[in-house]
Amino acid sequence: LVKPVIAIHGGAGTMRSKDMTEEKEKAYRHGLTLALEAGRAVLKANGSAVDAVTASVMALEDDPLFNAGRGAVYTTNRTQEMDAAIMDGRDRNAGAVAGIFGPRHPVLAARAVMEKTEHVFLAGEGANEFCREIGLEIKPAEWFYTERRMKALEQEMERRRNGGEENDPSRRHG
Amino acid sequence: TVGAVACDVFGHVAAATSTGGMTAKFPGRVGDSPVIGAGTWADDKTCAVSATGHGEYFIRYAAAHEIDARIRWGKETLEEAAQSVIKDLVKIGGEGGLIAVNAKGEVCLPFNSEGMYRAWMGQDGEIHTGIY
Questions:
Q1: What is d(CA B93, CA B116) in angstroms, rounded to the nearest whole number?
Q2: CA distance A130 to A114
């Protein structure tokens, strides 16, 4: 037997260290710790790596601090579109979804594609329909709304209206 | 974007990634997260990878599978392969990071951006977190 290990991330990019308060940093570290613990608990109970990564990502999707699930950012149409994927190292089985909205945990949608279909990748309305059909937990738009993300969209649109480059690498964040 | 990679007691690895994309993205834009081989990858023989950052660059570089290939064919270590890919991405303008583990229980978390929200438990069983 191997000593189990797990790693998680909650996104990378420009963190604007000058804006990071002690309180914010504490909240991020707390969210990361909870998510890691969710996966670690699975591994400690001799659970599978697939179950562990699912548990950790579900915890991150429920935390509005992170850009996935409940904390997802907005498109230029003021909508949210979520993508997720999962892959099992035992047999290279994989599942992915793109452009979905509604499932509380997009990672479970990806996992269902992997385990319940002969497909690897479902997108858009077909993927949403699949999620509803298999009974994944669906949440309304209010569940996913966060003022912080809406404000970020408005600021970015304002910047573009003022001549800011759409693809300015320093402004791309997600 | 969020993600997780793990190696269980049986030496099996897995990876998962989930994202809302990027703020003010064009509707319908898909980043690397759901693209198998770009932002997500797992194979017991090599590694499990979950990436985050400028998705288009990770797709163009087939970043996660590139790490697999460097280990499989180039005989690089997990650390060497992951660091090389993150370093190479800078050359084409790609910014971000990734987390990776292998079936031996090695963990690495390289990034080329200012920071990456991350946490890990290595073989010591301790929880570590980092931002910058």
A1: 17
A2: 12
Mark yes or no for CB contact B121/A173 under 8 Å: no
- pLDDT tens digit string along A47-85? 999 999 999 999 999 999 999 999 999 999 999 999 999
Give me the residues paired with residue B130 across strands: B118
In tens, the pLDDT along B35-88 reads 999 999 999 999 999 999 999 999 999 999 999 999 999 999 999 999 999 999
Report the C-alpha gap between A121 and A129 in whole angstroms.
14
Min Cα separation B98/chain A (Å):
8
Kindly list the distances between the CA atom of residue B59 and the CA atoms of A40, B8, B35, in Å, as whole numbers in the listed order: 30, 28, 7
Does the beta carbon of B92 lie under 8 angstroms from any beta carbon of chain A?
no
**Cβ neighbours of A149 in B, within 8 Å:** 20, 23
CA distances, A125 to each of A25, A100, B116 (Å): 37, 7, 32
